[in-house]
Design a protein that fits this description.
Layout lengths: L3 E7 L7 H15 L1 H6 E9 L2 E8 L3 E8 L2 E8 L2 E9 L6 H23 L7 E6 L12 E5 L2 E5 L3 E7 L11 H4 L9 E9 L2 H14 L7 E12 L5 H8 L9 E6 L4 E4 L4 E6 L2 E4 L2 E6 L4 H13 L1 H19 L8 E10 L3 E11 L6 H8 L7 E2 L1 H11 L10 E6 L4 E5 L3 E5 L2 E11 L4 H16 L4 E2 L10
Parallel strand pairs: 11-25
Antiparallel strand pairs: 1-10, 2-3, 2-13, 3-9, 4-5, 4-8, 5-6, 7-8, 7-21, 9-10, 11-12, 12-20, 12-24, 13-14, 14-23, 15-16, 15-22, 16-19, 17-19, 18-19, 21-22, 23-24
């Protein structure tokens, strides 16, 4: 590893929300170092007991890359143009795709960690940022997961700003004054939408749900999570960081906020309210979110929807099933007797929707790393369904989009095996003039197809219904 520079200072803007300061720092870095931004750009803001933390990253010093070709998966550690370690595995089509990929990644991480710590002299708290795609159709996934050790990393909380960068010919000196010089972001321009396309159209989505409900036995406890998307064509391109500031709440709250982009490609922007898994010092926590009602700016309506959510049998059953599956799966990797339910069916109000949330935690068994945990808990019922095998079959039969990173995971892991991953919901893909927004809904026997359509629309509201987005008039939907 080349020379690693470190700098720390008091946060020069303690009155500014940490997530907004992180966005301003990212914008400043992108403007000063466009070549690094083309390699890798990330902003990952997450809530803690002490407030928000923002990680801002640029450039790719090292990368854990994956490639899938048929039944073969290769993992490699790339350092610049050189490959330092490579492993090739073959998948078993009769076993869970995600569990196999994560177990392979667990072995690979254990192999490369000593090399990164000892040969390259990296600290245990060094983070790799990235995530994995949701493989609803594994045959279409050519890069299952990717994690990057950035050339430039900033960590910002309410009290302190820290800068770490790898000094080399690819990464010139980074000015530590950027924390002071990163001002409030300029006023956001409105997004002029020239075309809106529903993927699939409403009639086709409802017809598909009708067919799915016919396939589910009347007395079945089966659940299937089906997703759809809305594609917006913009008059002018939108920067991913600007889109995040458009859709994120004015003040930092319980949401994750993120922007991830590799090699100047499509960017993934999200404001997820759901912790998939968090790991620190051997403690593992999951926070399943399932069960939904719309939100409202009116306190009386919001309370009414809250009571409906708490008293609706379908929503409670959906949540208890998801939380129960998380508990059972987490128990397989935690020490016996350590697993506890710390909160159950709490209501979180995001303004545009309300959800039921539980918190489950335990101590990880010795010898296991974060990928072993992911192999046990992903995909959760909250984005897939139950039973898992049948849910996957139903998704492949009735879902008409490619999810990409939507409903996968995005966040970071450290070389010391701490980790924090958001489930990538409330997420959009940004590609130049196009923004594609995703949402899903859990379908059980007795579901109302039109109500499920409205639920997915409510979940997309931050991207589609805000003061900055001027949508073209859409025709009234035709119902069968």
């Amino acid at each position: 590893m080349k020379t690693v520079r470190h700098f720390a200072c008091a946060n020069p803007r303690p009155a500014q929300a940490v997530n907004h300061h992180g966005s301003a720092v990212l914008q400043a870095l992108e403007q000063r170092h466009p070549a690094l931004a083309a390699e890798f750009t990330a902003l990952f803001s997450y809530p803690t007991d002490d407030g928000m933390v923002s990680l801002v990253a640029l450039g790719s010093e090292m990368r854990i890359e994956s490639a899938k070709d048929g039944d073969q998966v290769s993992l490699c550690l790339r350092h610049g143009d050189a490959v330092e370690r490579r492993a090739l595995f073959r998948l078993d089509r009769h076993q869970s795709y995600h569990a196999q990929v994560f177990r392979l990644a667990a072995v690979f991480l254990d192999e490369i960690r000593p090399m990164l710590l000892e040969r390259h002299g990296l600290a245990p708290d060094t983070p790799l940022l990235g995530g994995w795609r949701c493989g609803t159709r594994p045959e279409l996934v050519d890069e299952p997961l990717v994690f990057t050790l950035p050339r430039v990393l900033c960590r910002i909380d309410a009290a302190t700003c820290r800068l770490r960068y790898v000094e080399s010919e690819h990464c010139p000196a980074v000015d530590p004054d950027l924390f002071e010089q990163a001002r409030e972001l300029p006023p956001l321009p409105p997004l002029q939408v020239t075309r809106r396309q529903e993927l699939p159209e409403c009639v086709d989505y409802v017809d598909g749900l009708v067919d799915l409900l016919r396939a589910i036995a009347p007395d079945s406890e089966e659940k299937v999570v089906l997703a759809r998307a809305v594609k917006l064509k913009l008059k002018t391109p939108v920067a991913p960081n600007a889109l995040l500031r458009i859709v994120a709440p004015p003040r930092a709250g319980a949401n994750y906020e993120f922007v991830f982009r590799w090699d100047g490609g499509d960017a993934w922007v999200g404001i997820s309210p759901e912790t998939l898994v968090r790991k620190e010092a051997g403690e593992v926590v999951v926070e399943p979110l399932a069960g939904t009602r719309k939100g409202s700016a009116s306190s009386s309506k919001s309370e009414r929807y809250r009571q409906e959510l708490l008293n609706d049998g379908k929503e409670r059953e959906e949540h208890e099933t998801a939380a129960g599956m998380f508990y059972d799966n987490l128990a397989s990797v935690c020490l016996p007797g350590s697993l506890t339910v710390r909160a159950s069916r709490n209501v979180i109000d995001l303004g545009y929707v309300q959800h039921l949330k539980s918190v489950i935690g335990g101590q990880l068994k010795p010898g296991m790393n974060i990928f072993d945990v992911l192999a046990a808990v992903y995909p959760p019922a909250t984005i897939w369904g139950k039973p898992l095998d049948l849910g996957g079959e139903r998704i492949r039969q009735f879902e008409l989009i490619d999810r990409g990173f939507f409903s996968g995971g995005l966040g970071y892991l450290t070389l010391g095996d701490d980790a924090n991953f958001a489930l990538a919901i409330r997420t959009a893909r940004v590609a130049g003039h196009e923004v594609q927004v995703y949402a899903g809904s859990g379908i059980v026997q007795g579901a109302d197809p039109y109500r499920e359509w409205l639920e997915t629309s409510n979940k997309m509201a931050p991207f589609l219904l805000n003061q900055f987005v001027a949508l073209p008039e859409a025709p009234e939907p035709a119902w069968p």
